[in-house]
């Protein structure tokens, strides 16, 4: 049976766990305008970030990308990551465990 959650009903900030099960970990990130998450890594994951609302500047390693509502980006979590809200923003992140190839 599927697990269904309303993203809009999640209230924790800046991170809200979407599902109780942690694989793959799914989080709603909500940032106020000009709020920035410090550089960090998710070395065991491939990450998908989908912008639900607002505009984010996403720094990956030494490069930055401006993302708007509706944009999706997929990246390796084993690099410095720092999202910065250019406007009040919400994004959905999925942390998919890496598998051996």
Could you please describe the fold and organization of this structure?
This protein is mostly beta strands and 101 residues long. It has a domain at 40-85. It contains no helices and 8 strands. It has a 5-stranded antiparallel β-sheet with strand order 1-2-8-3-6, with no helix packed on it. It has a 3-stranded antiparallel β-sheet with strand order 5-4-7, with no helix packed on it. The protein is globular and about 35 Å long. The model has no long low-confidence stretch (mean pLDDT 89). This is Cupin 2 conserved barrel domain protein. Residues 30-86 form the Cupin type-2 domain. Pfam families: Cupin_2.
Please provide a brief summary of the model.
The protein is mainly beta. The chain contains no helices and eight strands.
The biggest beta sheet is recorded as: 5 strands, antiparallel
Low confidence ranges: none
Q: Strand tally, please?
A: 8
Binned strand content: over 45%
Strand order of the largest sheet: 1-2-8-3-6
What spatial form do the alpha-carbon principal axes imply?
globular
> Structural class, please?
mainly beta
- Roughly how many Å is the radius of gyration? 13 Å
* DSSP helix fraction: under 10%
- Topology order in helix (H) and strand (E) letters: EEEEEEEE
Number of helices: 0
Summed over residues and divided by their number, the pLDDT gives a mean of 89
Give the N-to-C terminal Cα separation: 30 Å
């Amino acid at each position: 049976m599927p697990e269904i959650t309303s993203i809009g009903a999640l209230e924790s900030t800046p991170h809200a766990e979407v599902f109780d099960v942690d694989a793959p970990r799914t989080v709603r990130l909500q940032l106020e305008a000009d709020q920035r998450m410090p550089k960090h890594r998710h070395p065991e994951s491939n990450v998908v970030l989908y912008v639900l609302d607002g505009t984010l500047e996403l720094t990956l390693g030494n490069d930055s990308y401006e993302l708007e509502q509706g944009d999706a980006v997929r990246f390796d979590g084993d690099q410095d990551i720092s999202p910065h809200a250019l406007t009040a923003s919400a994004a959905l992140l999925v942390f998919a465990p890496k598998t051996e190839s």
